[in-house]
Amino acid sequence: MAQNIYDNPDFFAGYSRLPRQVKGLEGAPEWPAIRALLPDLSGKRVVDLGCGFGWASRWFREQGAASVLGFDLSRNMIERARDETMDACIDYRIADLETLELPEAASDLVYSALTFHYVRNFERLVRMMHAALVPGGDLVFTIEHPIFMAASHPHWTMDEDGQKTWTVNGYSIVGERHTDWFAKGVVKHHRTLAITINTLIGSGFELRRMIEFAPTPEQIAEFPDLAEELERPMMLLISAHKS
Amino acid sequence: MAQNIYDNPDFFAGYSRLPRQVKGLEGAPEWPAIRALLPDLSGKRVVDLGCGFGWASRWFREQGAASVLGFDLSRNMIERARDETMDACIDYRIADLETLELPEAASDLVYSALTFHYVRNFERLVRMMHAALVPGGDLVFTIEHPIFMAASHPHWTMDEDGQKTWTVNGYSIVGERHTDWFAKGVVKHHRTLAITINTLIGSGFELRRMIEFAPTPEQIAEFPDLAEELERPMMLLISAHKS
Predict the structure, then answer these.
(1) pTM of structure
(2) In whole numbers, what is the pLDDT of chain A averaged over residues?
(3) Is the CB of B4 inside 8 Å of chain A's CB atoms?
(4) Is 3.40.50.150 the CATH number for B5-241?
(5) Do B233 and A159 touch (CB under 8 A)?
């Protein structure tokens, strides 16, 4: 079973105060880039893996999705998502992505934001998602970028030239990474970018588009702190298609 | 026109002493990984972009390729390739990849090793290669990995934990990088991994496989210095297909 850090009280308290949890999708600078990867949603049956408080699940319905199934490991998350959603066509369930099985060929879009780097067995998950999609279906997901999470202790440093620099080491060493983020010992699973891409292709997906998120000049003008995201990508956004 | 650093005498002298130039393909640790990406070569018409001394061009013929057209910007390279090749089915020519045009649908494989990061206009080149291939043709190439070449001054450093660390900055800032390698001011063109992949897909290629080269345990046992390649990928290997 995956680590359920989201039901740790310290973690949940801190996490709930993130701009993207308070403001919803508009609080996430990568959201416009994700939108550009999403297919037309009218009439679509959507699965939202790692749905959290349900921000995206509700947005999919606003865009005309026929139904949304949201899954999250965290009871806290699912309970709040249910409290905040008045829509009989959205169903939230507690589930572990290490073992979740979805009905075959019954979904048009599988979506997931910043969740798959918590999953140990990515290959099983990708095969399951491919089987769950109808032919013509899409998979759109975001993860922490492997450049961001590779190092044993990822952090900013100043190099000898006084240049703000991101530390990368252990990139090709796949496996657990332990980090302190609102709580001690959050467990993530580092995979190289090539492993992520080749797993998708090897499971039958066609890669459509990839975005290593960087803020736009307009975003940097509004939020100057975002400029450091140009130095190294924090997030990887992927769109893949089932033929 | 691309910078022709290879005809700089200092550069050429240093470059010619690299293990991979003295020993040929077996002197390149990534060669077994490249071989795994190559299609069956029997009867194939191959184009080798940045052919250098012709090591790969000759190998393609040994594997049964019908013909090989090798291109390089460097007169030094092409002259030595011609001197060392006794094969009427291999033709070497001086050419600039910024402007090279190949006949349409007349090649089965376009191959290139560690050359495209010297090319400014990658999109033009990719469209030209796609047009040059027959349907069913393949593009297999290697470039310096963007993690390796992103920084304004890419180098190893020691982080505060005493961990050997690669410096990454400016990753999302596309454009020239100037480096000193056998000669001062070698000009390379940094592109993000996403730009490389999306340019291929946008030009009609289907991405088949991607390798961020890392040495095998056997290679590290034989050449312990290679272990540092696990910390960050130096080379990106890509296989793409024209349907």
Answers:
(1) 0.96
(2) 95
(3) no
(4) yes
(5) no
